[in-house]
Design brief:
- By secondary structure, this protein is of the alpha+beta class.
- The chain has a domain of 149 residues: OmpA-like domain (60s Ribosomal Protein L30, Chain: A).
- Helix 5 links the parallel strand 3 and strand 4.
- Helix 1 runs antiparallel to helix 2 and helix 2 packs antiparallel against helix 4.
Length: 329
């Protein structure tokens, strides 16, 4: 490039000797322009050289980076292949696990269904038990109420039973006292066909007919009258008493056209005669006395007829108070 400029200057010099001054100036102007252009081109050349050098440096750097990238690519390829192999193994293992998990889930689902069925059954049974428990609680409450009511009624009944027992004991004591007084009053007739017994809450005074009446008669003899008067005196202050006089005969038939015509009339007339003796010779209230005939139909000894011919005087305490108390229950 420099030789080119030198030749140009020499050519201009040669030509300048042959040309006019105006042309020379033009040539100088052109030369100056060429010089400026040359300087510009030199500057550009230097710049391009610098750029080429920089490009070469950059190319070297890029080459090194390329080599590094190639190395990295090779490493990454190897790594990728290893990872791919591991990935395939993992996928295979995952398929196995998925298969096992699917089976397990199926088993779990079946088991869950069974457990749910069992749970539902248990809940239903529990509900039934709760329903039964509520019913039982209701029945228990009802029974408790009934028990409370029964307890109250039982207490009232126990109180009535206590009152009854006290009253019965009182009556028994009264009957026993009555029996003792009657026995004491009739002590002189003990071995003369007269007996005094206490049974069923009553006092039974039994007088054999031979003590009171001649055979077939309704008239009471003196000894019998004395026994009846002593008995009447022993009970004449007993207002709370019922006295039943029963006449009894044996089975021997009476054949008579006069009174008594049969054993019925004989038993009634003898009982009536006894009542009259007691009323007429003591302060016994007639309203507590009654006379009845039992004829031959209530014997006490089938073998000994004499024992069946008798007068039974039954002394029975008035039990109206006792009956009233029982009726209240």
């Amino acid at each position: 490039m420099k030789s080119f400029f030198a030749i140009s200057i020499m050519s201009i010099a040669v030509l300048s000797s042959c040309v006019s001054g105006r042309q020379f100036e033009e040539l100088q102007t052109k030369e100056q322009a060429c010089a400026e252009k040359n300087a510009q081109l030199s500057s550009q050349n230097e710049q391009l050289s610098a750029e080429i050098k920089e490009s070469a440096s950059l190319q070297e750097s890029l080459l090194q980076q390329k080599l590094a990238l190639q190395n990295d690519t090779a490493f990454l390829g190897t790594t990728n292949r290893q990872l791919r192999s591991q990935y395939d193994k993992i996928n295979e293992l995952n398929d196995i696990l998925v298969s096992k998990n699917t089976k397990m889930m199926s088993d779990v689902t079946t088991e869950n269904k069974k457990l749910l069925a069992d749970l539902q059954k248990t809940q239903e049974e529990l509900q039934m038990q709760e329903d039964e428990l509520r019913i039982l609680e209701g029945e228990l409450n009802t029974k408790e109420a009934n028990i409370a009511q029964m307890s109250s009624a039982l207490e009232e009944r126990e109180q009535r039973v206590k009152e009854l027992e006290e009253l019965i004991a009182k009556k028994d004591a009264a009957v026993n006292d009555l029996k003792n007084r009657v026995s004491e009053a009739l002590l002189g007739f003990k071995d003369k066909g007269l007996t005094v017994e206490q049974k069923n809450g009553k006092v039974y005074v039994s007088l054999e007919a031979k003590l009171l009446f001649p055979s077939g008669s309704t008239s009471i003899n003196e000894e019998g009258k004395k026994a009846l008067i002593d008995l009447a005196k022993a009970i004449e202050n007993e207002a709370d008493l019922e006295v039943i006089v029963e006449g009894h005969t044996d089975t021997d038939k009476i054949r008579s056209n006069t009174i008594p015509s049969d054993n019925w009339e004989l038993s009634v007339l003898r009982a009536t005669a006894v009542v009259k003796i007691m009323v007429n010779n003591s302060a016994v209230e007639p309203k507590i006395l009654s006379a009845s005939g039992r004829s031959e139909y209530h014997p006490v000894d089938e073998e000994d007829k004499s024992k069946n011919r008798r007068i039974e005087i039954i002394l029975s305490p008035n039990l109206n108070e006792l009956f009233d108390l029982i009726e209240q229950g």
